[in-house]
Amino acid sequence: MQHGHEPQPTVSTTPRPRYRYPRIHLIAVGLCSAALVLILTLVPSPDATATKTVRLKPDALASRDIGSDAANTPGPDTPTAADSAAAVVDQMLADPQEAEALVADVPGYDWQEQTVKRGDTLSHIFKRVGLNSRDVYEVMEGSGDVKLLTRIHPGQTMRFAIEEDHLVALEYVMSRTESLLVNATDQGYRAEKAVKSLTPFTSYAEGTIDSSLFLAAQRAGLSEGLTMELANIFGWDVDFVLDIRRGDSFRVIYQELHLDGEKVRDGNILAAQFTNQGDTFTAIRYEDDAGHASYYTPDGDSMRKAFLRSPISFARISSHFNLRRKHPVLHTIRAHKGTDYAASRGTPIKATGDGKVIFAGRKGGYGNVVILQHGQKYRTLYAHMHRFARGIRSGRRVNQGQTIGYVGSTGLATGPHLHYEFYVNGAVRNPVTVKLPQAEPIARAERDDFMLVAQEMVGQLATYAAAMESERLARLD
To answer: Closest Cα to residue 230, out of 259, 207, 260, 200?
Structure first.
């Protein structure tokens, strides 16, 4: 166990968001629910069983006309009930505008392709395809977004269209979704950035915890990023270090963003449930007109509290709050006024609430310590840091979740750990059990819209869970 010397600190105290769903989309969601149950019940998917994941793919089935005579004519290709359900899902989720790539049309040139190598400049690459420094100069003197060519990186691709020793077009592929197209015009070269839009795939995953959230989430097909986001959403109600038990479970509706049929990255978690020791917490994502998003309970209360329950993600508590603890270094009875989190040296330490740095420096047995003031009522202390995060000094404002320092063993400490204290009106409180204040609920003007979204998403969670259970039972039979 790692502990430290924690004297009483001497510092004294004196749009939101909405994920707007058009009503036609909410109707679509309802139809998708019924279709999903039918699909999972009639056509069990081995992949779904293995990963506990259901993916609703938004491919438009243009070739399938459910209402046509051909579709209703008996034969080997006649759609089954499950086929029709799948078509409903695909048609309702398909959005041609989302799937449309916004890349400019490229004429049918004979392209020469080059890969950017370490140490390459434009001159090096142009020379390899038979161009010279004059060509580089003319391109860089062009209009539009030509300055993007100054930011090339190893591994990226450039394609050249050269006719009669003259560069007529250049394509600079910056990423899978972004490229720069440079065309020769009568007024010189013009560069235009093109962006391909990503198609969102709505997916569902669920899991039961046997040993850890990470392992259960991995089995359910969730990425590490989505797992961390899930923990962040419920981090105000569940301490993922102390509170997790075998049998706890989760359900998640989330998005995957695809391009040309392949996943590029994860999207947002749209709704989630986490059951911890018999208590179930539900979160709904809601975005406002300005694009600000956050998570709320189905009743419209913010999932965010004024403070995170823990300043370190997935660390082990090595010593609890105890006002009559025997100090491990001094071997005397001395109050332990906070909670110790054992973690590797260098582990990031997060501010548990928005606040102001009122002290950042060395303080006796605390070693390197940061003290934050949160309004007039609350104060938090973080001790034994290896070092402070960049920019952390007295007088600076910090945001909840912002890294303020890194775990160390400075001061009177037997090993690397964080000592965390929580004060209410100047009186120390147990950080693990103190009641955390709530953040602002959904705005009254948006409550009706939010409730419509929340009801639909809660229904979706229940529908998907029932479908997965039906599939599981069908497999047992």
So the answer is: 207
CATH at residue 117 = 3.10.450.350
**Contact between 205 and 222 (Cβ < 8 Å):** yes
For 270-298, the DSSP string reads EEEEEEETTEEEEEEEEE-TTS-EEEE-T
Are 220 and 268 in the same domain?
Answer: yes
Residue 17 in any domain: the answer is no
Could you tell me the residue range of the domain that residue 463 belongs to? 198-305+438-477
Token duo for residue 285: 């994502």
* Residue environment code for 296-335, b if the CB has 16+ CB neighbours within 10 A, otherwise e: bbbebebbbbbbbbbbbbbbebbbebeeebebbeeeeebe
Tally of CA atoms within 13 A in the half-sphere of 356 that contains its CB: 8
Assess contact for 133 and 179: CB atoms under 8 A. no
Whole-Å CA distances, 78 to 42, 67, 69, 337, 448? 16, 12, 10, 71, 43
Q: What is the CA radius of gyration of the chain?
A: 28
Tally of CA atoms within 13 A in the half-sphere of 71 that contains its CB: 12
State CA 280 to chain mean position distance: 21
Torsion of CA 364, 365, 368, 373, to 10 degrees: -80
| Number of structural domains the chain divides into | 4
Per-residue pLDDT tens, the chain, 477 aa: give them.
444 444 444 444 334 344 444 444 444 545 555 455 444 433 333 333 333 445 444 432 222 232 333 333 333 333 333 333 333 333 333 333 333 333 334 557 889 999 999 999 999 999 999 999 999 999 999 999 999 999 999 999 999 999 999 999 999 999 888 999 999 999 999 999 999 888 898 999 999 999 889 999 999 999 999 999 999 899 888 878 778 899 999 999 999 999 888 888 899 999 999 999 999 999 999 997 777 889 999 999 999 888 998 899 877 786 775 655 554 554 555 567 888 999 999 999 999 999 999 999 999 999 999 999 998 889 999 999 999 999 999 999 999 999 999 999 999 888 999 999 999 999 999 988 888 887 888 988 899 999 999 999 999 999 999 998 888 888 887
| Encoded tokens for 163 | 């006719």
User: Under DSSP, is residue 158 helix (H, G, I), strand (E, B) or coil?
Assistant: strand
For the chain, the helix, strand and coil percentages under 3-state DSSP, each to the nearest 5: 25, 35, 40
In a shared domain, residues 445 and 364: no
- Regarding whether 244 and 230 lie in a shared domain, the answer is yes
300: left (phi over 0), alpha (psi -120 to 50) or beta: left
